[in-house]
Amino acid sequence: MTEHDPTANSALRVTSEQRQGLLELGWNDALEADFLRLASPDTRPARVASVERGGFFVVENAAAIDAPTLARLEGTELDSTAQPAVGDWVALVVREGTPGITEVLPRKSALLRRASGRQGRAQVVVCNLDYLFIVTAIGYDLNLGRLERYLIGSLAAGIAPVIVINKTDREHERNAIDALIEELGVDVPVLFTCALEPGGIDALSPYLTSGTSVALVGSSGVGKSTIANSILQTDRLATGDVRHTDDRGRHTTTRRELWRAPGGALIIDTPGMREFGLWDAREGVARLFPEIHAASESCHFRDCTHVDEPGCGLLAALADGTIDDDRYARYLRALEELAETEALAAESTERLNARRERGKQNKLRTRKGSRRKHWDR
């Protein structure tokens, strides 16, 4: 990224009219300062509303959110996590009638997960959020391990998590649900909703203020799109039934999309995720298990695995009952998964660097061969 003189054309680059439209999309002074520092004078700010293989759909004001502009990425190839994602703020330029993205502004937050398969790479789910609605539902999906994964990802990204337990019209035991939430061991808001009933999502209102960005994540069939439709007061997002045998839902949402609610909140619906693999989330693990992380800080060895090493502060706390056995086991599982992911990422980076080096060598040999042929003639 290149920096430009913020005093040169700042009045021309973000007019009061542009700013008003951007404010309704979540724009603020910090974003404007980044834009004036990084973007060139012929660009203007926009927000990514959705992403497809053909390009990026961006909006420059809330009035155009139902008809976003298709733009392509200009310049050098970016790493997968640096590519524009839904919720990103970008610098947009139009050349000969074709919009292009020249810069991705620094992110306030980015929810990452490990991409499927064993390629050892990250996937950006969504960016620049104020709240993450972790949606689950009464029934099979209400699962401690699943909630912990989303919480770890959210806390690692610096996004405030909100647990939304939907379909409260189903028969359930509130005491059992309260006990499950208590096992999480962190103080996060837990809201109960029934999106199909009038007033069934009223509990979400405090988190849906004007200019606030919120994404809904969770498994297929938990009611994310139904909740989003209720917030948006529309039926534009497709919804579907679930199997009664196991609560499995079909993928009615096929891509992440940014919408603006009548009250001014920015809502991002996401496709159901069968799994949420952890990525670069050690900070999230530490925040979800604060008492265990604190005990591990007193370990004798810096690379302690907390299994059988002498002088392990965590094992000492486990022995005297300070730490719960189940939470200790879940903490270790999270660290083991992150260690495996980090090893795969290192292998993937090594293979990528090797391919790039081979490409450079091939280009060099081609140029040398061309020069020899020229002089031979």
From TrEMBL:
Region entry Disordered, spans: 346-377
InterPro entries cross-referenced by the UniProt entry: G_CP_dom, P-loop_NTPase, Ribosome_biogen_GTPase_RsgA, RsgA_GTPase_dom
Highest taxon, organism lineage: Bacteria
Span of domain EngC GTPase: 127-274
Keyword Protease among record annotations: no
Keywords, sorted A to Z: Cytoplasm, GTP-binding, Hydrolase, Metal-binding, Nucleotide-binding, Ribosome biogenesis, RNA-binding, rRNA-binding, Zinc
Cofactor: Zn(2+)
Annotated CP-type G domain residues: 117-276
Family statement drawn from the similarity comment of this UniProt entry: Belongs to the TRAFAC class YlqF/YawG GTPase family. RsgA subfamily.
Subunit architecture: Monomer. Associates with 30S ribosomal subunit, binds 16S rRNA.
Entry protein name: Small ribosomal subunit biogenesis GTPase RsgA
